What we know:
By secondary structure, this protein is of the alpha/beta class. The protein has helices spanning 39-57, 73-81, 86-103, 119-131, 206-218, 232-247, 278-283, 288-297, 308-329, 340-357, 362-382, 387-404, 416-431, 435-447; strands spanning 4-7, 12-15, 23-28, 61-66, 135-138, 141-144, 182-187, 202-204, 222-228, 252-258, 261-263, 304-306, 450-455, 458-463.
Amino acid sequence: MALKLYNTQTRQIEELVPLKDQEVRMYTCGPTVYHFVHIGNFRTFMFQDILRRYLLYKGFRLTHVMNITDVDDKIIINARKRNQTIADYTKEFEEAFLEDMKSLRIQQPEIMPKATEHIQEMLDLVSTLQQKGLTYQSDGSTYFRIDGFSDYGKLSHLDSSATVQSGRVDDDEYTKENPRDFVLWKAKREGEEWWSSPFGEGRPGWHLECSAMSMKYLGSSFDIHCGGVDLVFPHHENEIAQSEGATGRPFVKYWVHAAHLIVEGQKMSKSLGNFFTLRDLLAKGCRPRSLRYLLASVHYRKQLNFTFDGLEQSEASIRRVNDFIVRLREIPDEIAANPALEQRVALARSQFEQAMDDDLNTSAALASIFELVRDVNIQIEEGSLGGENRDQVLEFLRGVNSVFDVFDVEEQQLDDDEIRQLIEERIQARRDRNFQRADEIRQMLMEKNILLEDTREGTRWKRRN
Length: 465
Ligand code: AMP
Ligand code: ZN
């Protein structure tokens, strides 16, 4: 079965056929590191991680590039306010982003280029566009002339009169020949960092960096380009104009966009007080795996309504599977296998793959796991499964977990020190009246077959056997 994805450009679900055999080249717009990344951003990054992992599951070779936007107007202004260089200012947020990715088990793409390290490539691209007559200068800035690129609007399907630029990088008021034109290279502003260039001293436009970096690492035509829906216009539309304007070749075959995350039914915003980073949630006792599950479990083209209730339900779903795995492991080798189970597992596998092939229908894919858990649980209770069956189910869950990565499929042995540390953390959590965390630690240890007993003398533990 082939993987099918919804292509924003054609507005159709299409079979993924890479430009080169079994090799997928994918670019995903990365974070702007002017602040801690919020859980809305992570909704999009999580969708990209699931896509990435499922491509690997299907056996494709993958080169995935995710940029780090470490220069834009907000960064330049904030760095100046703090009297820091751009590099010093962004370092903290970039490191935090990488740490958050690790906590959420988002795999590192093969290549993570930084914008400030690709200024030359961006300038080369502007030179090419200039040679093709697609640029003009005004007030020290260089603009892309949209009238010179007849395909403008083919991604966002906006009619040309509506494609007036708006948004975060283009809000400087410079003189343009046509309001739809967008800036490639911006004139420097007094007191701010700048680069010298054949187009004058200045800084790059945001759209330019993604065209320059994606083509540098993936070539002038590649397979998949992703981002959140807010990037379709103008960012991705402008990337197409710059890239195809320069090379004369089709830039991207499949454009794939994730719908937004909203919070308790409302847009996430600082003023509403519903703006969360991963760190905010961790401070409230959330486990990264619950957020990972929640973000991954809603189909990427559906708006995701983040609620604390949803977070708890996600944790409960993970526990259901983990408890099941503990029970499954207790099936001894000696019992003969039930031959019918192999087919039941094969059915679950084909349901899982069909759902994922169908434009990454993650909720249906997860449903296939829970149905299997329910059926197999009954058989475990009846005592009708043998060691071979146990391994068949574990093998299926291993495949599932290579994509979702939220279940404890592999047996993790804790050593005595780790157990003592967790018990200490639980005692502290109880002192802080953080009973949710205390219960979680108890549960987590129980999943690892460690039982706790609170006595007057303190907390004792023993291994369940
Ligand atoms: P930025 O750092 O603003 O460039 O955003 C990084 C990624 O997060 C982009 O792909 C955006 O489209 C995406 N994004 C921003 N806000 C949200 C949101 N509320 N829900 C989902 N994705 C978002
Ligand atoms: Zn981008």
